[in-house]
């Protein structure tokens, strides 16, 4: 598996991964309100790395390098459970200074378990009742 910086030619595939992954995993969200354009809005100004295997993009992470913050980490549903998320997380950790932070939706138990199993600690739960999230830290 190769981890590399994304370029504009990767964006059509990244848009699809972002949409399909959220539709598959975000059971609490209204999937009809999700669109391909969400990727562009939700990654403005961020450094994007991708996981690629045999010239197929399997997932991505978007990073706010100035704040040591992982904003998005998404894997295509067909690649769930194959180590893609771990490779992206490790590459993100190497790219930024510690401590790193991220936010994870409180209802996203699978992602919370993934992060906790990989050394992230819950710091504080924030947000309104229907949109709670955990601020998590890796040091």
From TrEMBL:
Residue span(s) of domain N-acetyltransferase: 1-139
Protein name: GNAT family acetyltransferase
SUPFAM superfamilies given in the database record: Acyl-CoA N-acyltransferases (Nat) (SSF55729)
UniProt xrefs under PROSITE patterns: GNAT
Keyword entries, A-Z: Acyltransferase, Transferase
Gene Ontology MF terms in the entry: acyltransferase activity, transferring groups other than amino-acyl groups
Domain of life: Bacteria
């Amino acid at each position: 598996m190769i981890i590399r910086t994304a370029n504009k030619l990767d964006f059509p595939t990244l848009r699809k991964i972002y949409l399909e992954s959220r539709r598959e995993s975000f059971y609490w969200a209204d999937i009809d309100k999700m669109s391909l354009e969400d990727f562009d809005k939700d990654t403005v100004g961020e450094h994007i790395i991708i996981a690629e295997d045999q010239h197929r993009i399997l997932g991505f992470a978007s990073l706010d390098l100035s704040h040591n913050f992982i904003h998005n980490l998404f894997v295509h549903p067909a690649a769930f459970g194959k180590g893609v998320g771990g490779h992206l997380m490790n590459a993100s950790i190497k790219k930024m200074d510690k401590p790193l932070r991220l936010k994870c939706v409180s209802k996203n138990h699978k992602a919370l378990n993934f992060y906790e199993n990989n050394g992230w600690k819950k710091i504080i739960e924030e947000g309104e009742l229907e949109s709670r999230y955990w601020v998590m830290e890796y040091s």
